[in-house]
From TrEMBL, chains A, B:
Stretches assigned to the HTH tetR-type domain: 21-81
Keywords noted in UniProt: DNA-binding, Transcription, Transcription regulation
DNA-binding region: 44-63
Range of residues in the leader sequence: none
InterPro entries: DNA-bd_HTH_TetR-type_CS, Homeodomain-like_sf, HTH-type_TetR-like_transc_reg, HTH_TetR, Tet_transcr_reg_TetR-rel_C_sf, TetR_C
Record bears the keyword Transcription: yes
Protein name (Swiss-Prot/TrEMBL): TetR/AcrR family transcriptional regulator
Organism from which the protein derives: Actinomadura meridiana
Pfam families: TetR_C_11, TetR_N
Gene3D superfamilies, per the entry: Homeodomain-like, Tetracycline Repressor, domain 2
Length: 202, 202
DNA sequence: CTAAGACGAGACGCAACCGTTCCGTCTCGG
DNA sequence: CCGAGACGGAACGGTTGCGTCTCGTCTTAG
């Protein structure tokens, strides 16, 4: 009844990252669930431990602070990002990108957590940096590839402003889905793709 | 040294809204400054009172809870929203709208507070509703007018999807300014206006 | 002049959470 | 088989915020 189930005292390299471990998994899951429920500002490590069915010490043994824990965990999770394939046309690529982003934003935990992380970034520069590098960076690279391929195909002018293009790719969907809380159906994504392509070409 | 400076025991109609009052002003200012510093989740009425140089009772005499206070104050503030004039062309109207939104987002307090309020809306439906009705509603009406006028001029097709148009008007600028933390200069707003017009027309 | 009432200040008891430190249990590597 | 070490659980003292309440002060309406 007491004690854990799979304790491997030296599973991970000392000082190195924690990757696989039943306790760590439970803590990570509890962390994100708790984050979705109360937000970053009100997140307490006590509640995370309670939800994970662990002791607080198990958390402090892994991370020195709430902020470090947050940065580490969102980094781990956001590494997973599917690549957007080359569909042969700008519109196809745009639609694929929008569909992938939409799928990510549809995840109930993601849609609740993202606004909170952005807000936390305002008050905690390290979180903002981690979000920009890891989460944004991955998505950003896919989007840049979409634009770069279009330039190579001749669908976009060589001097195209990528930064502005990225805002047009990400902004409307994030706004409607997460801020306006209006999920986008496939038909809407199609129409949005049409309009984004027109904007990119302008 | 003790006591207040302008106490009007019955300045306001009993049970009615509080509008003008030196103490109320100080509390409101302190509330937004505190909100910008620590975010909604960590906002404490104790800190607000401290910053306002008032007692906690002065706050509780006005609002029953933190949430009610937040809703009341953001409603008051967001009522102020400049109208976007009819410039005669869709592009002119779009640019005027984007410029107005950009000016609002440039305000140091607004840019720090908005992400937090959106995040708070995830966990507090009443705040989300208030944000949607009051803040969004005002801006939204201006934007709808821009699109409506364009349809009347014949610049946009009669069946234009206003909802999608609003996402294109608001999304990219909010994304770049508030999430990406990249302020937009006038030239960028011009180019964004070109692209938004192209998207709307598509 | 007086009485009413809002004011700043701050103490109250209560609850939550912090980060640390024990405890006794359990599971491994050697 | 035994020692090292992670585990859940619980308690620690300290801090912070809650919402209420009571002071003595100051202003204003009547």
């Amino acid at each position: 009844m007491l004690g854990g189930m799979s304790r491997s005292p030296a599973v991970r390299p000392p000082g190195g990252p924690i990757l696989q471990d039943a306790v760590t998994d439970a803590i990570r899951t509890a962390f994100f669930e708790e984050l979705a429920e109360v937000g970053y500002g009100r997140l307490s490590l006590e509640a995370v431990a309670r939800r994970a069915g662990s002791g607080k010490a198990a958390i402090y043994r892994r991370w020195p602070s709430k902020e470090a824990m947050t940065i580490d965990l969102i980094t781990q999770v956001s590494i997973a990002a599917t690549d957007t394939p080359d569909t042969g046309t700008l519109r196809g690529d745009v639609l694929a990108f929008l569909t992938a982003v939409d799928a990510a934003l549809r995840h109930p935990l993601v849609s609740r957590i993202l606004p909170d992380l952005f807000a936390a970034g305002v008050h905690h520069p390290n979180i903002a940096a981690s979000l920009g590098d890891r989460v944004g960076g991955a998505r950003r690279e896919k989007a840049v590839n979409v634009l770069r391929r279009a330039v190579e195909r001749g669908e976009l002018a060589p001097g195209t402003d990528f930064e502005l293009g990225l805002d047009l790719l990400a902004g409307p969907l994030y706004w409607s889905t997460t801020i306006r809380q209006a999920p986008a159906d496939p038909a809407r994504l199609e129409r949005l793709a049409d309009k984004v392509v027109a904007a990119l070409a302008a």
